[in-house]
Amino acid sequence: MLSLPSVKEVGLRNEADYYGASYCIAKQLGYWSVPKIECKGWTHGWTPVDESINRPEYFIYHGLGSDYFSDDVFFVQNQFVEQLLRRRGFNNSFAIGMPIIYAGDSQVPIKRRSGSLLLMPSANCSNDLDRSELIQKIKDSRGRFAEVYVSVHWSSYLADKKKLESLGYNVICGPKISDKNGLERARRVFQYFDYVVSDGFGSHLVYANYFGCKVCIPFSYKTCSIDDCVRELEKTNYPKDLYEVFYQRSSKNYLEKKAGFLFQDIFKSISNKEWADNELGVPFKKSPVELARLFGWKR
Questions:
Q1: What distance separates the 2 farthest-apart alpha carbons in the chain?
Q2: pLDDT digits over 194-204, tens only?
Q3: Distances from the Cα of 279 to the Cαs of 48, 76, 236, in angstroms?
Q4: CA distance 150 to 152
Q5: Crossing angle of helices 203-210 and 273-280, rounded to 10°
Q6: Cβ neighbours of residue 290 under 8 Å, at least 6 residues apart?
Q7: Do residues 281 and 80 lie in contact, with contact meaning Cβ atoms separated by under 8 Å?
Q8: Are residues 167 and 149 in contact, defined by beta-carbon separation less than 8 angstroms?
Q9: ∠ CA 157-25-206 to the nearest 5 degrees?
Q10: 113-273 CATH pick, 3.40.720, 3.30.750, 3.10.20, 3.40.50
Q11: What is the distance in angstroms between the CA of the first residue and the CA of the last residue of the chain?
């Protein structure tokens, strides 16, 4: 049976606290309290590794604003991004991998449920989640799986839960940015389910592969319009000339080139951990002691 930790919301001091990243590492070090990680950024959202883009702001959450200074500290997914930032003058940039690779509680081992299915509709879906193609196509074939759950965004959880339960689905809430157990919840979910099926771009694709799920996009691919994409990007510090790049990098055409194995029938889908490790920066993962040193934590 899937068992998830309770949601425990905390104040966010900076991006290192998002989804409880700093709490995960402090726990591994045996700290009773969580010191602040003095950094300007440690991006959680997956940006596909693409060395044809030599713009560091593309890889930094919300871009590089005017309030960023040369002595600011950045933690990034890989050495390529580290070098981009250093060439821009940010010499305190360190490749340590993405926060999700530090999720894990050795005291809570998870047994994968063979034949279980998790549906993860894209955040680009319309508000009528219960009428989406993904939900409707699986509805009549649920008997082929040991159990079926749908993961929905926390912001619409209550409304979506009611609709989906009326269709006979089990529903779980996606992690909330202020939940200190957010990464641990994600780990347990992806180590429990056998199959993860989606209909669009998102960090869940690489996270699920990293934790060993068989992942696929077997039906229609959902994407936002360019106008919706621009409206979201205008809330950030990303330069306008990168807007088209972001839009294209979330397209089906681009994802098929980067990760064609995802576009597969459910029962032919695979878990591609080698790909996920590269995307998440696993080769640059540090030990908890090394992280403490980089974070400036002292006991």
A1: 57
A2: 999 999 999 99
A3: 6, 12, 23
A4: 6
A5: 120
A6: none
A7: no
A8: no
A9: 50
A10: 3.40.50
A11: 38
Half-sphere exposure of 133 (CA within 13 A, CB side): 11
Please state, in angstroms and rounded to a whole number, the distance separating the CA atoms of residues 240 and 158.
35
Q: Which two tokens stand for residue 200?
A: 């669009």
Sheet of strand 147-152, all strands in order from the earlier edge strand to the far edge: 170-173, 147-152, 113-120, 193-198, 214-216
The count of other CB atoms within 10 Å of the CB of residue 267 is 10
Note the pLDDT tens digit of each residue in 10-67. 999 989 999 999 999 999 999 999 999 989 889 898 988 888 888 888 888 765 666 7
Handedness of CA 78, 40, 21, 160 (dihedral sign): negative
Alpha-carbon gap, residue 34 to 25, rounded angstroms: 9
**Residue 48 CA, distance from chain mean position:** 11
Residues of the chain with CATH 3.40.50: 113-273
Number of Cβ within a 10 Å radius of residue 143: 6
Structure tokens at 220: 């229609």
CA atoms in the 13 A half-sphere facing the CB of 43: 26
Q: Hunting for tokens 């979910």 — which residue is that?
A: 189
What letter represents residue 283's amino acid?
Answer: P
Neighbouring-strand partners of residue 195? 117, 214
Rounded to whole angstroms, the Cα distance separating 102 from 16 reads 12
Spatial distance between the Cα atoms of 221 and 248, rounded to a whole number of angstroms = 14
Q: Coil, helix or strand for 210?
A: helix
Q: The pTM is what? A: 0.93
